[in-house]
Amino acid sequence: MNEHLKTNAKAAGIKQDLFFHLARHTFATTITLSNGVPLETVSKVV
Predict the structure, then answer these.
(1) Binning pLDDT at 50, 70 and 90, where does residue 46 land?
(2) Name one GO molecular function term (predicted).
(3) Which residues have C-beta within 8 Å of that of residue 25, sequence separation ≥ 6?
């Protein structure tokens, strides 16, 4: 999974090292919580 993230980051021109843990938290904060999903639900998903 981490190798795929690194490949995608390189293709997109992202210089930050990406890894699964970072992607998981980014999903939780930017996609779910920002769209009004309750924290209790997010904690069960991620």
Answers:
(1) low
(2) DNA binding
(3) 46
| Residue pair 33/42 in contact by the 8 Å Cβ criterion | yes
Enter the tokens of residue 21.
Answer: 């843990």
Query: Which amino acid type is present at position 25?
Result: H
DSSP letter at 14?
A: -
- State the Cα angle at 16 between 11 and 18, rounded to 5°: 75
Name the domain count of the chain: 1
- Enclosing domain of residue 17: 2-45
* Separation CA 39–CA 19 (nearest Å): 23
Q: Are 29 and 42 in contact (CB under 8 A)?
A: no
